[in-house]
Amino acid sequence: VSHAVAQTSKIPVLVVRPKQQAAAMHPIRVLYAYDGSTGSSAALATAKQLSWPSDAQVVALTVVEALTAGEIPDWLMKKARDADAEAMASHWEREFEDDKRQARDQLADVMHKQTPPFAAAEIVCAAGHAAEQIIKLVAERNIDVVLLGSHGKGMLSRLLVGSTSSKVLNQAACSVLIARGT
Questions:
Q1: What is the 3-state secondary structure (H, E, C) of the chain?
Q2: What was the pLDDT predicted at 70?
C-alpha cells in the first residue's frame, strides 16, 4: 500500500518504519539524497517544515554514475595499453573526478544555505548507482530516515530504467520521505 501511495501521490509521503531497540539510543540520523532535481529540492523543503531534535545528525549524499558498469578486475587494470587507449582512459578518469568534485561542491553550496540541522550536514559524494549507494549508506550509518525526491516517471520508464525512490522504499530498513518534483 505504501509503495502505491508513494508512487501516485502528488504530495510528499512519509513511510514510517519502527526504530529498532538499539537505534532508540542514538540521535536521529537523517540521510538526504540530492540529485539536483526538483524532487530532491521538494524533499528538503518538506523536511525543513518538520520539527527535528537539536542533536539530529544529517548526512547529505550525492551520487555520480560510475564510468563502468562494475568493478574493473585488477588483471585488466594492469594489462598494457597502447598510448592512445591510455590517454583516453586518463582523460575519462580526470573528467569523472571533475564531475564528482562539481557534484560535491553543488551539494555543499545547497546545504550551506540551509538552517540547522541541515546546514551542519556531512557531505558525501559516492560513485555508482544512486539506489545502491543510498541503501549502502543507510546500513553503514544506521540511518533512521531517508529524504529523497521522485521524478514521477511513468510506469514504462520505471520498468525500463528503474526508480531510485522505489528501490529505496522497498529495500531501506528505515523510514523514507519521498517528495515529487513539479
A1: CHHHHHHHCCCCEEECCCCCCHHHHCCCEEEEEECCCHHHHHHHHHHHCCCCCCCCEEEEEEEECCCCCCCCCHHHHHCCCCHHHHHHHHHHHHHHHHHHHHHHHHHHHHHHCCCCCHHHCEEEEEECCHHHHHHHHHHHHCCCEEEEEECCCCHHHHHHHCCHHHHHHHHCCCEEEEEECC
A2: 57
Q: State the CB neighbour count (10 A cutoff) for residue 5.
A: 11
Q: What is the mean pLDDT of each run of 10 residues along the chain (182 residues)?
A: 79 86 78 95 95 95 79 61 75 89 97 94 95 96 95 51 82 93 74
**β-sheet with 175-180: strand ranges across:** 13-15, 175-180, 145-150, 29-34, 57-64, 122-127
**Residue whose grid cell is 557531505:** 123
What crossing angle do the helices spanning 130-141 and 164-171 adopt, rounded to 10°? 30
pLDDT digits (tens, 9 = 90+) for 34-48: 999 999 999 999 999
- Sole residue written with cell 524533499: 43
Say how far apart CA 158 and CA 168 lie, in whole Å.
14
| C-alpha pair distances (Å), 56 with each of 80, 116, 145, 179 | 50, 9, 11, 21
